[in-house]
Design goal:
The complex is a heterotrimer of chains A (about 220), B (about 200) and C (about 190). Chain A has about 220 residues and is an alpha/beta fold. Chain A has helices at about 1-10, 10-25, 40-50, 60-65, 80-85, 120-130, 140-150, 160-175, and strands at about 55, 75, 90-95, 110-115, 135-140. In chain A, strands 1-5-4-2-3 form a 5-stranded parallel beta sheet. Chain B has one domain. Helix content of chain B is about 70%, strand content about 5%. Chain B is built from 8 helices and 2 strands, in the order αααβαααβαα. In chain B, strands 1-2 form a two-stranded antiparallel sheet. The radius of gyration of chain B is 20 Å and the shape is globular. Classes of the chains: A alpha/beta (about 220), B mainly alpha (about 200), C mainly alpha (about 190). Chains in contact: A-B, A-C, B-C. The interface between B and C is large, with 130 and 132 residues.
C-alpha cells in the first residue's frame, strides 16, 4: 500500500522522499569525522598480522636517513621527556594514546618506533583497525637502534680481514653520523648499554624536512 | 577503504590529468544540458522567472552529500582524505558577496562561462577576460590585503564539527531546507508566470 | 528504437525570461542536479577532490604576469601559488585539464541540441556593446571575489557545500544575497 502511494508521486517528489529517508537513517549511522567506533573484522586482522606487519630493520632506517631518502613519516611513540632527551633524527613525537587523534592519514607510509616492540605493535594494531594502509614498525625500537647503530659492538681483532675491516668502517661511519661512538669493549662486558645517549645534533646532511614536500594544489 | 582512488595510489599524476579531462566533459555536458550555457537562463534565477540555478545547485549538493556520507559509512571512501579548503570566514563572506554581484551583472560564473564560450556566446568571452582582469587586480592588491586575506582562519572545519551536532542530523536539515527551498522556488516561478500573463 | 532525439529536443532560449512554457523544453533541473551531483561524487571518489573553475583563470593571469615582469611575481605569494615550484608547467594542472574537458562537453551538448550559435546573450532592452561592458565588469567582480573567497560556485559552493564546509556554505549564501541585491539595478540588462 505504501508502494502505491509512493508510485503516485512524480519522480522528483519520490527522490525527495528518498532523500529525507536517507537523511533520517544517517542520524543513526555514525560520524564520518570521528574514529571512536569501528567495525573490526578480527579474523581479517589476525590473518594479516602474520604477513603484513612490515618490519623495518634499524640499519635500513639508518641508511635511508643518511641518504635523505624517506617517503614515510617516522613516529616516536615514547613520552615527551624521552623524546626530548633523544630521538631518531626526522622523527615526530606522537604518544600511543594520541595516535588516533593525530594527523596521520590512511594513505601515508608510517614507520612507528618506541623503546622496544611493545608500543609500536600496539599502535600498529590501532591504526590497522582504522584501515590505515602503510603502517610499519621499526624492529627492536630504540634499544636496537642503540645497540646496532649508535654504539655498535666492535669485534676488534688485531688482524681483520678486508671484509671485516669494511664492515667495521661502515659501522663506525654510521655511528659517527648519528653522534654515537663505537663500543670498544668485548662482548661480555655490558658497560656499553649504559652509555650516555648522544645529544641530538642533527648531522648536517640530514634535512628534517620530508623529501616528499610536493603539495599539489587541490583548491579551485 | 579503497577510495579516493588517486590518494591510494591507484594511478599516477599523468592519468589523473586524463581523468580530469574526462570528468570535465561530463561536467560541461550536464551544465549545457541544463541550460547553464545561457546567461539569460542563469540570470533568470534572480528575477524569479526560472529558479533552476538554485534547483540544480542544491540537488547536486544534496546528492553528493548523501553519497559521500554513505560511501564513507560503508567503509569504501575515506572521507578524511577528500580535500576541501580551509575556512577563512570573513574573506569568504565578502568574496561571496562580490562574486554574487558579479554573477548577476556578468551573467555567468567561471564554470558556466566556459560552457557558454564553447557554445558560441561572445559575451562570455568578455566575461572571462573580465575575470582575469579582476584576478589581476586582486594579485596586485594582494600585498596590501594579505593580513585581511588570512584573517578569521578556522581551518578545515565542517558544519557538524562547528555546531557540535550529529553529521546525519545536519544532513537531514540540509535536505529539508533544500526541499523547502524547491517548493518555494516552484511557487515563486508560478507566481511570476501569473504576474507576467496578467500584464 | 531509443528516441534520443526526444531527450535532446529543446531550442529557443530566446524566451528564457518570459514563459514557463518554453522551459518545458529544457531538461528537468532536478535531473540535471542529480547528474551533476553524480559527477561531483565521482570526482570525490576518484580523485579525492572536487570540481573547480576559477583556478584556471588565476593560473593564466599568473603565468602572463610572470612572463611580463618576473621580478614582480617573485615576491608575490599569490602569483607564486599558481606558478608552482618551476618543475613543471603551471598549466599541467588538474583544473586546467578539467576546464578543457568542460569546454568540449559544453560544445558537444550544444551541438547535439542545436544550441551552438555565435551570438550575444542579452535582454531586449540593451545593446550588445553595453552587454559586453556589463559582462566585463561582472567578470572582474567575479574574479576578485573568487580569489578573495578561494573559490567560485563550482569549487566553494558545490564542492564545499556537499562536504558541509563552513566557508563553503557561508560563501554560497552570500553569493545569492549579493546577486539578489544587485538584480534590481541591472534588470534593464536582462528583462
Amino acid at each position: 500500500m505504501i508502494l502505491k502511494i509512493f508510485a503516485e508521486y512524480p519522480p522528483r517528489k519520490r527522490l525527495g522522499l528518498v532523500a529525507i529517508l536517507l537523511g533520517l537513517i544517517s542520524i543513526f549511522a555514525g560520524n564520518p569525522n570521528g574514529k571512536t567506533m569501528t567495525k573490526i573484522n578480527a579474523q581479517e586482522i589476525s590473518m594479516i598480522s602474520s604477513k603484513e606487519i612490515t618490519k623495518i630493520a634499524v640499519d635500513e632506517l639508518a641508511n635511508d636517513i643518511i641518504k635523505s631518502k624517506f617517503d614515510y613519516r617516522l613516529i616516536d611513540l615514547r613520552d615527551a621527556k624521552d623524546y626530548s632527551e633523544y630521538n631518531i633524527p626526522s622523527s615526530e613525537n606522537i604518544e600511543v594514546d594520541q595516535i588516533l587523534n593525530s594527523d596521520l592519514e590512511r594513505n601515508e607510509n608510517i614507520l612507528l618506533y618506541s623503546d622496544n616492540d611493545i608500543e609500536s605493535t600496539q599502535a600498529w594494531f590501532l591504526l590497522k583497525t582504522q584501515d590505515y594502509k602503510g603502517v610499519n614498525v621499526l624492529r627492536g625500537g630504540i634499544e636496537s637502534w642503540k645497540k646496532e647503530i649508535l654504539f655498535p659492538a666492535c669485534s676488534c681483532n688485531k688482524t681483520p680481514t678486508i671484509e671485516q675491516k669494511h664492515k667495521h668502517d661502515k659501522l663506525l661511519a654510521i655511528s659517527k653520523f648519528f653522534g654515537g661512538s663505537m663500543n670498544l669493549v668485548s662482548e661480555n662486558n655490558t658497560d656499553g648499554q649504559n652509555r650516555k645517549m648522544p645529544v641530538i645534533k642533527t648531522p648536517a646532511k640530514v634535512t628534517l624536512k620530508k623529501a616528499n614536500g610536493k603539495k599539489k594544489r587541490e583548491g579551485c | 577503504m579503497t577510495a579516493p582512488f588517486y590518494k591510494f595510489g591507484f594511478f599516477n599524476d599523468e592519468i589523473s590529468l586524463i581523468i580530469a579531462f574526462a570528468i570535465g566533459i561530463f561536467f560541461g555536458l550536464v551544465l549545457e544540458k541544463g541550460g547553464f550555457g545561457s546567461a539569460r537562463m542563469l540570470a533568470a534565477q534572480f528575477y524569479f522567472t526560472d529558479m533552476r540555478v538554485f534547483k540544480v545547485m542544491f540537488t547536486a549538493i544534496v546528492t553528493a552529500m548523501i553519497g559521500l556520507f554513505y560511501l564513507s559509512w560503508m567503509g569504501f571512501l575515506d572521507l578524511s582524505l577528500v580535500y576541501y579548503g580551509d575556512t577563512y570566514l570573513i574573506p569568504q563572506i565578502l568574496g561571496g558577496l562580490i562574486l554574487g554581484v558579479g554573477f548577476v551583472v556578468g551573467g555567468y560564473c567561471p564554470g558556466t562561462s566556459a560552457v557558454a564560450i564553447s557554445t558560441g556566446r561572445i559575451d562570455a568571452i568578455f566575461y572571462a577576460l573580465g575575470g582575469m582582469f579582476g584576478i589581476l587586480v586582486f594579485g596586485e592588491l594582494f600585498p596590501y590585503i594579505t593580513e585581511f586575506f588570512y584573517s578569521t582562519y578556522m581551518g578545515k572545519i565542517n558544519l557538524p564539527t562547528l555546531l557540535n551536532i550529529n553529521y546525519g542530523f545536519i544532513m537531514l536539515l540540509v535536505i529539508l531546507m533544500a526541499i523547502g527551498g524547491f517548493t518555494a522556488a516552484e511557487w515563486a516561478e508560478k507566481a511570476m508566470l501569473k504576474k507576467r500573463e496578467g500584464e | 528504437m531509443l528516441n534520443f532525439k526526444k531527450w535532446f529536443s529543446h531550442h529557443h532560449e530566446d524566451n528564457a525570461m518570459e514563459g514557463h512554457l518554453t522551459q518545458k523544453h529544457y531538461t528537468n533541473p532536478y535531473l540535471i542536479g542529480l547528474l551533476l551531483g553524480i559527477v561531483l561524487l565521482s570526482t570525490f571518489v576518484i580523485m579525492g577532490r572536487g570540481l573547480g573553475a576559477s583556478g584556471v583563470l588565476s593560473t593564466t593571469v599568473s603565468v602572463a604576469v610572470d612572463k611580463v615582469a618576473p621580478s614582480h611575481t617573485e615576491n608575490n605569494e599569490f602569483y607564486q601559488g599558481y606558478l608552482g615550484d618551476g618543475t613543471k608547467s603551471p598549466f599541467k594542472d588538474w583544473l586546467t585539464f578539467s576546464i578543457i574537458g568542460t569546454v568540449l562537453g559544453g560544445f558537444i551538448s550544444g551541438a547535439i541540441s542545436g544550441r551552438n550559435k555565435l551570438m550575444v546573450e542579452k535582454g531586449p532592452r540593451v545593446s550588445s556593446k553595453k552587454r559586453f561592458l556589463f559582462a566585463f565588469v561582472g567578470g572582474s567582480l567575479m574574479g576578485f571575489g573568487a580569489k578573495m573567497a578561494r573559490g567560485c560556485t563550482s569549487g566553494q559552493a558545490l564542492t564545499g557545500g556537499s562536504l558541509l564546509s563552513v566557508g563553503g556554505w557561508a560563501f554560497m549564501i552570500m553569493v545569492f544575497v549579493g546577486a539578489y541585491a544587485m538584480a534590481y539595478f541591472v534588470r534593464r540588462q536582462w528583462t
